[in-house]
Specification:
mainly alpha, Amino acid/polyamine transporter I
Amino acid sequence: MNKANQWSSRFGFILASAGAAIGLGAIWKFPYVTGTSGGGAFFFLFILFTLFIGMPLLLAEFIIGRNTGKEAISAYKAIAPGSNWAWIGRIGVVSCLVLLSFYSVVGGWVLIYALMSISGQLIGQSYGSLFDTVIGNPFIVLGGQLLFLVMTVFVVSKGVQHGIERANKYMMPLLFISFLIIVGRSLTLENATEGLLFFLKPDFSEITASSVLYALGQSFFALCVGLSCMVTYSSYLGKEVSLTKSASSIAFLNLFVSLLAGLAIFPAVFSFGLEPAEGPGLLFVILPAVFEQMPFGTVFLSLFLVLFLFATLTSAFSLLEIIVASLTKEEQEKRVRYSWLSGLIVFLVGIPSALSFGVFSHVSFGGRNLFDVADFFVSNVMLPLGSLAIAIFLSFKMKKEVLYKEFMAGGTISTKWFELWLFLVKYVLPIIIVIVFINLLRSY
């Protein structure tokens, strides 16, 4: 494999993978899904699912990708040639396309807000009304989505080492610093304690079959597992890197950022007398109000929105990369052409989601607009089903000695951890996913 299309270091790989996992999953989606799904009880389930289902699955994708050194579709073909298992990769690529199609819409919102903040247009606004105006304007949302995708395509077209990895090394550390500043201010607001109790004190009477499925789906969405993204990312990784340490680092970073997101949002929600079930616009309504209460708040808001845009882009890189990698295979001379072609297709597929809060707001299925339908389909159907398929594939199509070698490589780990991981992936994971789906069907 071309060295320019490999990670230069474990640190670069972790930052890129964490960026893929964190992005909108932890910062944008986690707070509003938590707010609509039970608060502290949902967060408790999310932690359990992340540690005992999401992280083992993340490691499973790492092992499949690093073992073959191939992108998602080719990896399954290499392990099970002449079979239909490659459809896991194909469906993952299509799901990534759908996910990026509505993800880029939110990325466009972030980009628009960043530009408005820098130009001073957010000062003194009614943030709830402003958000409704922005997402309801077809020219603004489509323009934002297009520009966001152009930025994404530009970086991905540069390759793994010189594009994706280089961008993440600067973006992610700056985002952490900015987030800590916001949390510090949010926790000092009046009535912040009420928000903390909502977020950190579980009330299991709030848990329903739907909220359990959402917690499971969020753990997959937040770690970017189930779509074979991480199969592709780990295929660029050297054999000397410990996959177990990398997977645990990414999972705990994700939980930490999710915790920061909750600490930044929910104390402010209750302080300003807003509803935690605000929905997808929660971040765009609350954070500007928090910054308004800070000295030099407009400066910090601009900084955070720019860094939030960076985090959003890091996730978009991973989603576009799996599409581009599946088209180019190892023929890197095709990368630039297929990057721009893939970006165009994603933009076209995302148009209905972009217009679902304005022009197409009257279109709904099962009480969900087109944006929510795409989100629900990927997050709560394709991610769990993809994860189930990956767990079954790894358990029955890969030799135990191969799994053991990849699991133990790059570090000193007890064999007991390998046996526990394999047990979780082979037996616990599939059972939990199936049970959650059966309960969901019963609830409808």
